[in-house]
Q: What sequence folds into this?
């Protein structure tokens, strides 16, 4: 769907609108684009009669330009990009809005021209804008499948991007495949994507990609996950599973990426029931598994030499019933660590602990890296707002994994915030009696707990048997970015941080 265009006039022949995204002052930005003189003069005429365009209009404006593609230009100025806190998202957000406006105007094959500011931090802006633009064409899975669906009169079918290289276009198309898959899996409702139906979607989506898919319906080998699922076992369609994804590259394997994704298809909180409307949007608590699945889809397309990828997606429903697991239970994890349950609504860390313990078995610390992805805590949003919360252990820090990921995120519009585990986090989950080895949580919500997203990292580290293993381990809490705006029931899924992860892995390969 995304194509690069080296020259505006040539690309115009196959386009039906020109979309211009440029920071103020607009006249200066237009000069950088190198548009044909006739188009530029028409846009300058529009600036002369509308001062808001020159200063950065709050909404895209459609300008009639007979010689332009489709006879129209959608002009989307932004505020000046002058501060070091400005990044490519200023332009990518404007590009998405402008492309949506072009489609409203009747365009299905627009040509996007972005005036990219100078500076290394804007080096990948065209790709980011292209991805934001094509994401506007995505429809939720259940909307596409609905018999009552009415197809829009015009749809975005192809996007040409001025000055985007063919290599960058190929990379963006691969990323969009994975991000679209992630968006489907995030937004599918609690009955459309029950654990086993989530698995069925993966089986269909990975056909022909080279990714091996196996579905484990017997989860007795994952005792903590099985405890979370206990109340759901009586309802056949709500029963749990673990989806295993395995990508093996051609040639010699030099590195292994081990991924764990939290896939809670609906989180009622279990016996510690969510109240006061807290369940709304909880079908999106599978965002970690969705993100991991989307990432694997991209990596299968990108084929990073020597990189094997193994992912476990823990698909489970945290229901309430007479078989619910409860606080005070002591459950031996897959690792053999005895876990005392502190709060059944802290279920995601239990799922991840068993998945990571399974991934750890046979992993070589010299070549393997473990990464867990989850919508784990409300605290990470309270602490960081709409950013990924990233935390790693000492071996991963020695590798520089999060440092590389953070650099990639800045370039690709998926910035993250980082913290590191402290001794207080391990003291927080320390056993309170000789009957257990670790405490899963306190009785409070994470937002009411100091270091409410670092403590769960310590729990996972201990419960999975990773502590002192020398295996590099990175945890990404995506609760603040899984949808935007951060309304879990109505927000649009983002696919973040798939692009940053792919770029970080490719950067490590290049180094």
A:
């Amino acid at each position: 769907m995304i194509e690069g265009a080296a020259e505006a006039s040539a690309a115009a022949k196959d386009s039906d609108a020109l979309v211009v995204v440029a920071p103020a002052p607009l006249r200066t930005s237009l000069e950088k684009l190198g548009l044909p003189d006739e188009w530029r003069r028409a846009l300058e005429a529009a600036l002369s009669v509308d001062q808001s365009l020159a200063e950065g209009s709050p909404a895209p404006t459609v300008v009639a330009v007979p010689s332009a593609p489709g006879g129209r230009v959608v002009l989307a100025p932004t505020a000046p990009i002058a501060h070091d806190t400005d990044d490519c998202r200023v332009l990518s957000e404007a590009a998405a809005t402008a492309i949506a406006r072009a489609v409203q105007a009747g365009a299905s094959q627009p040509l996007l021209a972005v005036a990219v500011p100078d500076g290394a931090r804007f080096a990948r802006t065209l790709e980011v804008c292209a991805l934001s633009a094509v994401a506007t064409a995505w429809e939720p899975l259940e909307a596409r499948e609905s018999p009552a669906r009415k197809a829009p009169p015009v749809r975005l079918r192809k996007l040409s991007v001025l000055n985007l290289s063919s290599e960058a276009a190929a990379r963006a198309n691969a990323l969009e495949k994975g991000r679209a898959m992630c968006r489907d899996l995030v937004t599918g409702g609690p009955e459309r994507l029950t654990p086993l139906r989530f698995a069925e979607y993966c089986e269909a989506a990975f056909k022909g990609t080279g990714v091996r898919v196996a579905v484990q319906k017997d989860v007795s080998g994952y005792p903590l996950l099985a405890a979370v699922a206990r109340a759901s076992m009586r309802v056949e369609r709500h029963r749990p599973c673990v989806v295993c994804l395995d990508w093996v590259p051609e040639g010699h394997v030099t590195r292994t990426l081990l991924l764990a994704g939290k896939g809670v298809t609906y989180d009622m909180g279990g016996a510690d029931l969510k109240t006061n409307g807290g369940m709304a949007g909880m079908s999106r608590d599978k965002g970690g598994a969705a993100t991991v699945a989307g990432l694997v889809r991209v990596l299968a397309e990108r084929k990073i030499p020597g990189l094997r990828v193994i992912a476990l997606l823990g698909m489970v429903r945290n229901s309430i019933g007479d078989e619910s697991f409860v606080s005070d239970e002591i459950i031996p994890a897959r690792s053999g660590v005895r876990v005392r349950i502190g709060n059944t609504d802290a279920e995601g860390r239990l799922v991840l602990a068993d998945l990571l313990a399974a991934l750890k078995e046979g992993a070589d610390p010299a070549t393997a890296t473990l990464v867990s992805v989850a919508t784990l805590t409300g605290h990470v949003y309270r602490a960081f707002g709409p950013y990924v919360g990233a935390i790693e252990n000492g071996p991963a820090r020695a590798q520089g994994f999060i440092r590389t990921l953070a650099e990639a995120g800045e370039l690709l519009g998926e910035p993250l915030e980082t913290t590191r585990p402290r001794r207080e986090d391990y003291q927080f989950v320390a056993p309170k009696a000789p009957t257990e080895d670790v405490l899963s949580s306190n009785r409070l919500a994470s937002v009411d707990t100091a270091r409410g997203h670092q403590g769960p990292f310590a729990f996972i580290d201990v419960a999975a048997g990773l502590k002192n293993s020398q295996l590099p381990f990175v945890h990404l809490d995506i609760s603040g970015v899984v949808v935007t705006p951060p309304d879990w029931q109505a927000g649009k899924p983002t696919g973040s941080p798939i692009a940053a992860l792919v770029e970080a892995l490719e950067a490590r390969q290049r180094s």
User: Anything to note?
Assistant: The chain is about 35% helix and 20% strand. The longest helix spans residues 166-187. The domain at 2-163 is CATH 3.40.220.10 (Leucine Aminopeptidase, subunit E; domain 1).
